[in-house]
Design a protein that fits this description.
Elements (H helix, E strand, L loop, with lengths): L6 H13 L7 H14 L4 H4 E3 L1 H12 L4 E3 L2 H6 L20 H13 L4 E4 L3 H9 L6 E4 L7 H11 L3 E4 L6 H13 L38
Parallel strand pairs: 2-3, 3-4, 4-5
Antiparallel strand pairs: 1-5
Amino acid sequence: MTRTVHPIEQESFRILRSRLDTSALPPLRRAVLERVIHASADLAYATELVADEEELRAAHTALHQGAPVVADVAMVASGITARRSVCRLADATAAPGLTRSAHAIRLAFAEVGPGAVWVIGCAPTALEELIALDVAPALVIGMPVGFVGAAESKARLRACGLPAVSNVSEKGGSAVAAAALNALLYTPYPLGEPVEAPERADAAESADAPQSAESPEHSEENLQ
């Protein structure tokens, strides 16, 4: 896919780099951090994003060799601009002790099997279910948002040993989760020198994902 970088995106990255020096970071960690900040206008991610370069390199290779991508909600899926993703929330149903989000993870795993990249940007219960299942992921981007369970689910993700990208606070959301995935997709393969500016952009670029607050229809309460 060839993308033409929109001038607004170019200016956003120029401003970002004028306020935050990311030049010392390894290439994929830098790409993920910058695109998350670009999607959120929140420089605090520089101190709370958790990602390992070697895990990112392995996931980058897997993605560019065709690993499937799974999103927890449609807002995350719509923000992933360079790859079709699997999202089974519309097919999921809640049951006692099981939210729709968690059931959607079960359905998606039955479809894609091991080796996928999972992008969780809304529901903590989706991330909890993913951790509980033996999904053998290429990477988990776990950045759900909310006051109930979000920070705790991300802490469990970091503790469980799965290759992961997460952040340490209650914030997160569809836009930043999709942005982290897009950073890996947009970085050319095979990985060479660090890229100084976005090489590709969506022809209809407005951002990596919707910039507004989480839609009520995708809130954790409505996914029960």
